[in-house]
Amino acid sequence: MKFKTYISKDSKLKEAIAALGWSNNEDIYSCSEDQQVYKWSSSNREMVQVAKLPDGFVSTDLHWLVGKGSGIGTPGASAAGGSKGGESLLIAGADGRFVILNKSARIERNVSAHTGPIVAARWSPDGAGLLTAGEDGIIKIWSRSGMLRSTVVQNEGQIRCARWSPSATAIVYCQGPFVAIKPLAANSKLTKWRAHDGLVLCLSWSNNTSMIGTGGEDCRYKIWDTLGTNIYTSVADDYAITSMDFCPDGELLAIGGFNMLKLCHYTGWSHSIVRFNQQVTGSLFNIVWSADSTQIASSTSTGSLLFGHIIERELRNRNLKAITSGRKTIQLQDIVARTSDTLDFSERIIKWELGYGHLVVATVHQVHIFNEHYINTPIIIDGRSDIRIIMLGKKHFILVDYNSIWIYTYTGRLHLNPRFPGSQAQIPHLNGRCVSLGMDSLAVRDHSDQTIVHVFDLLPGATRQEEPHTIHSKAPVIEVAVCRYGNPDDQYLVFIDANQDLYITSVHSGPEYVMHKIGTQVTATMWSSDTNILVGLHDLSYSVWYCPGEACGDPTLIALTTFTYDTSEFGKNITLENFEGANITFRSSGAIFTVSVKTYCVILHKLFAENQWERALKLCRLAQNHLLWATLAAMASKRNQLEISEEAFSASLQIDKVNYLNYIKSLPLSSPEHMAENSIMNGRIQEAEIILMHNKRIPEAVRFCLRMHRWNKALEVALKHSVDVELVLEERRKYLQALEREENDPQFLALDEPVCVQCAATHKHTHTHTATKERTEDGAYAPRDAHHMEGGEHFSEFDHEAILGSVKEAEEFDNLSPEESKKRLALLVLKMDQNSDGYVDRHELKAWILRSFKSLAEEEASERFEDVDLNNDESVTLDEYLQETYGMDSEDEEGVRLPFEEPRNEEERKLIQDDKEMFEAADTNRDGKLDSTEFVQFISPEEFPQMLPIILQQTLRDKDTNKDGRIDFQEFVGDNAKDHDKEWLVVEMDKFKEDFDKNNDGFLSGNEILSWVVPSNDEVASDEVDHLFAASDDDHDDRLSHQEIIDKYDIFVGSEATDYGDHLQNIHHFDDEL
């Protein structure tokens, strides 16, 4: 790779060009001491005058800020917006002034900034402001309109050069032999170090790699990281280094000196060097790259303008080799077939990639797709300009410009235009390390929050094409890579965070991604193109993970399947170039080193992808290698090949896993327990719990949580289903005794409070006859199971009433003998079994419970109706209701109420108003009184849809304090917030957002308010069905036989002799009697 250079023809300039910059990929603007601004064309290298500067204004620096899509090579260009007003030219002068010109060459601002010349003026990468640095030792930050914001640096010495950091959060500048980084955050420490033996003459900060390059009078250039650590130091040149610049994509570095131009890798080593011996150019100043990273321009001390573009860039992929021989020409060779083709393009080539049998070339306005078998008939995509990134995959390739990401198939069809929150502003900041294309997935690291990675599914019809899942890392993500091979179930994603730790997760395990740490001090990583083998680069070594996905959940397997090799023989500053098939390519100081991974492992991965387990087993038996056996063990365990896993683990000396596999094999095949234990074997703990809970294996789920020491989850499951609570508490006590620690968990402390055993043993059924409808503290109607669990204790009265549909009948059953209770329950079971198949399934039991709820409501209303109907005329008037409810008890004669006249206080007035509205709504025939049917609606309005508008109206009147027709969180908690701590508010906020605010707009309105104040009988019935099944379904067939129900009669209908209310939550309190 090298520069092909041209020098401007017959320049009319007599003085050296003081400053220049690219306005787009074709035009260059320059200015010199004659107060003129010129525009140069990179195609014909001719210039025209476009503006005149104020008299006496001698320019020293120039920088363009151009709207997105205009081809400028700085991230700030895209952030500046696409409006014409966003295209601005900043020019600094030797008299301490700077001017801002618009694209029409009109001066918009003329600002006096420094005492003495301004040596550097630069727009910030986000386009929000600019910096100026002067020989007076001061660096200032200005707004985009030229208003002073702050003075960040004040020194006595002269500043030579200054540049923004890529994120616009710091400024680097050079002063004498020193280089310093000044963070803009308050109270941040200045980082300063001695960079060169003489003056530092130039510097540049890379956009993508965050490396800093410096050149000095000591005739050397150096590369540094942001901590001031030296990465590379060049040999001394003949003359001082006068100019340098990293290209926008961060991969290349241009160095200029006296009659010398050098093209370097970003780590410092040189690709090529050009010396101008025949045509003297003098020292090169102000080297600048075009936005597409393919061209440079530089001013010279002789007054000429130097142009250059990159040629002889070479890529290899399997049997193909491609090299650029000119601005519009690529030579493509097939090494195996010994053929060569010359590909000519009508426009300048700006990006191209080779891989998977295809060559994709982006020109200024087109994208050409070449298939290695049909070189003469490329597919052309029109309208794609300013392409910054091309990335090839097995099925698709991606194009990234300044506006969006485009995913195409190799037939030229647009497959997907992925977007995520804030993507429009973040696209210009993307680079090759934060975007990765896999077999069926695309991963993009978020720029605004670098701890987030967005994962798109590329499978046809996948929902994640439009709504990606997100992976959250604890530290900022530096690099992301998706595997390029495998079945859809075997796709993995790895990322390197800011701590250089390597994590892996399954691509299709979202949205709750489980991440496993598999490496440390990793600087770069790459997947093989043909297998799921991963390579990672360290400072002085590299590691190969032969089975990272399947073995990630087991540290022992990861250790057995990971090999680390020394790279000291390769040299320093090694970069990872490619991983094609079984060959890994490294580059160090320009030299290419190729190493191979173990071939048998590559073959084993391919057999695994094809499910050829017998051949895989034969291969391992032939090789007798611990690495192969461990890899096979991990793969076979994931695919439930237990026999093969057992042999592989045995051969790799993992005896504990062999014993565990034998236990799994002893379980019934395809049973929930078998599947759960296999998930545990593969490290999928959450999946095992879900399997047990979904299949109603509640006791097993509790014991599983105990095995995993998930104490709170075990207690939660046990309490919810009233199963093994005593076991959880006992195991918790043993655990704490072994650690010699005291209990400090509030949930367990609440259950350890002593309870009177005698009182618990003599507990009697007490069924409540409801006189008035209960309300919760916040005004919502109490659900029917409000008293099912109280104080951590289970009360079975609700179970009995839910089955019998009557409080009176439940009381009657309490006094029956066990034989009579079973006899009567058998009759009820026949009615529950609607399809008469001998079983009561969940749907039948739920329907029966809902019918019971309706009967209970009618029974409650009937009892109340008799009390309120004072004149016994089979109807209730509003006056009768108010008299019975609000009339005062007589002090003279017990049982007699004085006539009700007026409300005694404001609260009573409000209650009466609500009752009047509800009474009128229930009076459907408008006769001014309620019969027994209408009275049910009045007493239990939450049970009837036609009454819900009144409930909504009254709730808004009571809670909506700002009268905006909706409930915010402050109105949701109301005055209760004053009596509770912050923790209570956090819980209520979570309830507000997760349970009720369905549209996530921060308010409750309409049905959302009703979901808050009106309990759902359907949900209560479902919970009761789960509870009864957990307690009665002994054979776990997810249905109840008639005999199972009758055997558990005490659960369903109760008895004095066998009380189901024997305090399952507190069964350990009976230990003394036992």
From TrEMBL:
Q: Which GO terms describe its molecular function?
A: calcium ion binding
Give an example GO cellular component term for this record.
endoplasmic reticulum lumen
Complex and partners: Interacts with PCSK6 (immature form including the propeptide); probably involved in the maturation and the secretion of PCSK6.
Q: Which Pfam families match?
A: Beta-prop_IFT80_2nd, EF-hand_5, EF-hand_7, TPR_IFT80_172, WD40
The question of whether Lipid metabolism is a record keyword is answered with no
Q: Which organism is it from?
A: Anopheles stephensi (Indo-Pakistan malaria mosquito)
Q: Which PROSITE patterns match?
A: EF_HAND_1, EF_HAND_2, WD_REPEATS_2, WD_REPEATS_REGION
* Domain EF-hand per the UniProt entry, residue ranges: 820-855, 910-945, 947-982, 994-1019
**What job does this protein perform?**
Probable molecular chaperone assisting protein biosynthesis and transport in the endoplasmic reticulum. Required for the proper biosynthesis and transport of pulmonary surfactant-associated protein A/SP-A, pulmonary surfactant-associated protein D/SP-D and the lipid transporter ABCA3. By regulating both the proper expression and the degradation through the endoplasmic reticulum-associated protein degradation pathway of these proteins plays a crucial role in pulmonary surfactant homeostasis. Has an anti-fibrotic activity by negatively regulating the secretion of type I and type III collagens.
Keyword annotations of the record: Calcium, Cell projection, Chaperone, Cilium, Endoplasmic reticulum, Glycoprotein, Metal-binding, Repeat, Signal
Name-wise, this protein is: Reticulocalbin-3
Q: Name one GO biological process term.
A: protein transport
